[in-house]
Design a protein that fits this description.
With 237 residues, this protein is of the alpha+beta class. The protein folds into two domains: 3-190, Deoxyribonuclease I, Chain A (4-Layer Sandwich), CATH 3.60.10; 205-236, no CATH class. Helices cover 23% and strands 28% of the residues. The protein has six helices and 13 strands. The protein has helices spanning 3-7, 74-90, 118-129, 163-167, 213-223, 232-236; strands at residues 15-20, 29-34, 38-45, 49-56, 62-69, 95-100, 132-134, 137-138, 144-146, 152-154, 157-162, 173-176, 187-190. The strands form four sheets. A six-stranded mixed sheet has the order 3-4-5-6-11-7. The longest helix is centred in the middle third of the chain and has 17 residues, at 74-90. Residues 58-184 form the Endonuclease/exonuclease/phosphatase domain. It comes from Vitis vinifera (Grape). This is Endonuclease/exonuclease/phosphatase domain-containing protein. GO terms for molecular function: catalytic activity.
Length: 237
């Protein structure tokens, strides 16, 4: 991976990156970030994965991202699972894992569903053991198409996150983006901003247009029972 290729992606002198070159059946991985936003603290390279431990510049939050390129064979896939497991043993920070896993997690994620394979069961087992959760994807079900006339469709690309990672963000959205020339659709993950204390109360103006909504609010309001104890004299004495 040349530095010129990485820097062509933008951010100028504020760009930093780590790369894992393609080797054999293993595709390459490139992780880029803006140094004004993220500070890299450590990183680990595997054969099928690249992990970076970041610290947010604005608030000091430390978290881990692991990029993966899943192999095709059962033996090599086990190596990937071992690599990911080793990262969980190395760092206990909020964690996000993403990339092309080259395997589906659920039966519904293939256009030709068939039976649940042993590889799918193993993927689900690894995700469960490592505490990684799948996030519903907006914009489409599948992320890859291939075969004659692109008749085969599957969700091979995704982000998985642990509970600690979800706890740090107010909302998380995974989306399939428009596909360029590749046989894969790009997938984005938006954190929606860091959580800062309890979730705020939200109100949508469109609720006011729903028939009966205002009457329901009035009824709830009059049904509220407020109880209080007068403590002023005790506090001032």
């Amino acid at each position: 991976m040349s530095e010129g290729v990485a820097r062509s992606l933008g951010s100028g002198r504020f760009l930093d990156w780590r790369a894992l070159d393609a080797s054999g059946t293993a595709g390459g991985i490139l992780i880029c970030w803006d140094k004004r936003t993220l500070e890299i603290m450590d990183w680990e390279e595997g054969q099928f994965s690249l992990s970076c431990r970041f610290k947010n510049v604005d608030n000091g939050m430390v978290w881990v991202f692991t990029g993966v390129y899943g192999p095709f064979t059962k033996e090599e896939r086990e190596w990937l699972w071992e690599e990911i497991g080793a990262i969980r043993g190395l760092w206990e920070d909020p964690w996000c894992v993403g990339g092309d896993f080259n395997i589906t997690l659920f039966q519904r994620e293939r256009s030709r569903q068939g039976r649940i394979s042993s590889a799918m069961r193993r993927f689900a087992q690894v995700a469960d053991e490592l505490g990684l959760r799948d996030i519903p994807m907006q914009g489409g079900v599948f992320t890859w198409s291939g075969g004659p006339n692109n008749q085969s469709w599957a969700r091979l690309d995704r982000f998985l996150v642990n509970t600690s990672w979800l706890d740090q963000f107010s909302s998380v959205l995974q989306s399939r983006l428009p596909r360029p020339l590749s046989d894969h659709f790009p997938v984005s993950l938006e954190g929606g901003g860091l959580r800062r204390g309890p979730s705020p109360f939200r109100f949508e103006n469109m609720w006011l247009k729903v028939e009966g909504f205002q009457d329901m609010i009035r009824r709830w309001w009059w049904e509220i029972e407020v109880r209080a104890v007068l403590v002023t004299d005790w506090l001032l004495s």
